[in-house]
Amino acid sequence: MKKTATVLVILAMAVSFIFAGGSSESYKEKTEYVFAANCTWPPFEMIDDNGDVTGFEMELVQRLGEISGKKFIIRNVAWDTIFAGLSNGQYDAIASGVTVTEERKATIDFADPFCNIGQIVVIRKKSADSISGIKDLTKKKVGVQMGTTGDFAMDDYDVVKAQYEDVGLAILDLVNGNVDAVVCDSVVAADFVLTNENFKSILTTAGEPFTTEDIAICVKKGNSELLKLINDAQAKMVESGEMAELKAKWNII
């Protein structure tokens, strides 16, 4: 009898520990999620003149959090480690102009795409007579941001690839004549070519996008709870017209 009572006390203490600490996270509703972004990819994500994170996707994440009733926190991280950080739990999601690919689907889960883009060639205006599109880049030096779909796409072409940690650095080298062209997302190219005061008189795009890609927020494989929060909130933004308004604000065509 005494032994039985002792066992019951121990069991009661164990249950109390689970709810008071220990494994309590599984019993608590999560209220905060961290979204990683590599803020070098305007107009999706960037750092403004005040040092603040801004851009279409950054505003999208904040609004999704408001609609979901959760706190969505943005963390600026390096692109080359961004997927590893998601895998090892440093953050809960990535919102960084991520292209949906079959290879990535094997290790991460994607929310519903919020836009479709393509890779496009950016050149100096004075090169327009000799470079009219991707077919004219043979043997030429082409700048790309490493680890992006623009980087991967150039593996299928006979070019001399110059890899950069930041697409902005590739653009600067293009302006300075150190590369013949830059390949990047069409929306990013438009930001540098059409709206950036430093570059729009110097740069232009050559031809049309030569790929088509869906862009979406992604989460760690199996995180169905966060995936549902994102998809439900995005659907509400589309239905209300907020998504279209946000895209128009940031020239996401």
Could you describe the 3D structure shown?
The chain is α/β, with parallel strands linked by helices and 253 residues long. It folds into 2 domains: 30-116 and 215-249, D-Maltodextrin-Binding Protein, domain 2, CATH 3.40.190; 119-211, Periplasmic binding protein-like II (D-Maltodextrin-Binding Protein, domain 2, 3-Layer(aba) Sandwich). Helices cover 36% and strands 22% of the residues. The chain is built from 9 helices and 14 strands. It has helices spanning 2-20, 56-68, 82-87, 102-105, 149-153, 167-175, 186-195, 224-240, 242-249; strands spanning 32-37, 46-47, 53-54, 71-76, 93-94, 108-110, 115-117, 119-124, 141-145, 160-164, 181-185, 203-206, 213-215, 218-220. The strands form 4 sheets. The chain has a 5-stranded mixed β-sheet. A 5-stranded mixed β-sheet has the order 10-9-11-8-12. β2 and β3 form a beta hairpin. α2 crosses α8 (224-240). The longest helix is centred in the N-terminal third of the chain and has 19 residues, at 2-20. The chain is globular, with a radius of gyration of 23 Å. The model is unreliable at 1-27 (pLDDT under 50).
Radius of gyration, in Å, reads 23 Å
Structural class: alpha/beta
Low-confidence stretches: 1-27
- At the fourth level of CATH, the homologous superfamily of the largest domain is Periplasmic binding protein-like II
